[in-house]
Design goal:
It contains 8 helices and 9 strands. With 246 residues, it is an alpha/beta fold. It has one domain: Acetylglutamate kinase-like (Carbamate kinase), CATH 3.40.1160. A hairpin with a 2-residue loop joins strand 5 and strand 6. Helix 2 packs antiparallel against helix 5 and helix 4 packs antiparallel against helix 6.
Length: 246
């Protein structure tokens, strides 16, 4: 691919509020307009505190505390809807589309919570860990929706990528795991390279900024995983290598 690419990574604090996301959008816009800069591929974390909140939701679902789980989920949804409102999107249809995308995302999150509850009821411990990771992964997916909308609001074309770029092997059942995290599920180099390029290159060719979720991947068997509590920076490095960033 002829266009030179750079990975631009934003952590949880950088996307922690509507004001912060505005700043992120202007940084990305500057990089697109600056002819001395390589074209940006953006990797974002969940909003600050959201991964911990998702893990609380997963724990409540696992222990059968459904009312408290629903309360936490509603708080989380309201938090993201308030940030969407504070983005002050210029076009009403753009705002409506963002709200629709967030609502669809939370609907899918509820499905993942239901899958976690089902695996817990069947005492499938190894699958429960993976289902917990799937719930924890939603913070980044929600962030890409907000950041992409804010970038588009500046007049730059950007697309939120919901799919996982990083491919890993299925973790062994005896592998040490902690809640919401699959430890040592290392990215598969060639599979990740093919997948990441398939997701990103068609957008860059059209001068569209990809906004990608950090922290998460997908196993060859189709399970969503997380790459550890500090995995967002690591994932940015893996995606950069897969895309031949200079």
């Amino acid at each position: 691919m002829e266009t030179k690419i750079q990975i631009v990574k934003f952590g949880g604090t950088s996307v922690g509020s509507g004001e912060s996301i505005h700043r992120v959008a202007h940084i990305i816009t500057h990089k697109v307009h600056d002819t001395g800069e390589d074209f940006p591929v953006v990797v974002v974390s969940a909003m600050a505190g959201v991964t911990d909140q998702l893990l609380r939701i997963a724990q409540l679902a696992y222990t059968g505390e459904y009312d408290d789980c629903e309360i936490e989920l509603n708080i989380l949804e309201q938090k993201h809807l308030e940030v969407a409102e504070h983005l002050s999107l210029k076009h009403e249809d753009r705002y409506s589309q963002l709200i629709h995308n967030l609502e669809m995302a939370f609907s899918s999150l509820q499905q993942d919570i239901a899958e976690l509850q089902l695996s817990a009821s069947k005492t499938l411990s190894s699958e429960t860990q993976l289902r917990t990771a799937a719930v924890a992964a939603w913070g980044e997916r929600l962030s890409v929706l907000l950041v992409a909308a804010a970038v588009c609001n500046t007049g730059i074309n950007a697309v939120p990528i919901q799919d996982e770029a990083i491919i890993t092997e299925h973790p062994l059942s005896e592998m040490h795991q902690t809640s919401g995290t699959v430890i040592d599920a290392e990215p598969m180099t060639q599979e990740t390279r093919v997948n990441a390029q398939k997701l990103v290159y068609p957008l860059i060719e059209r001068h569209i900024v990809p906004i990608m979720p950090g922290f998460i991947g997908r196993t060859t068997t189709g399970f969503v995983i997380t790459l550890g509590r500090n995995g967002s920076d690591y994932s940015a490095t893996v995606i950069g290598a897969a895309l031949d960033c200079t």
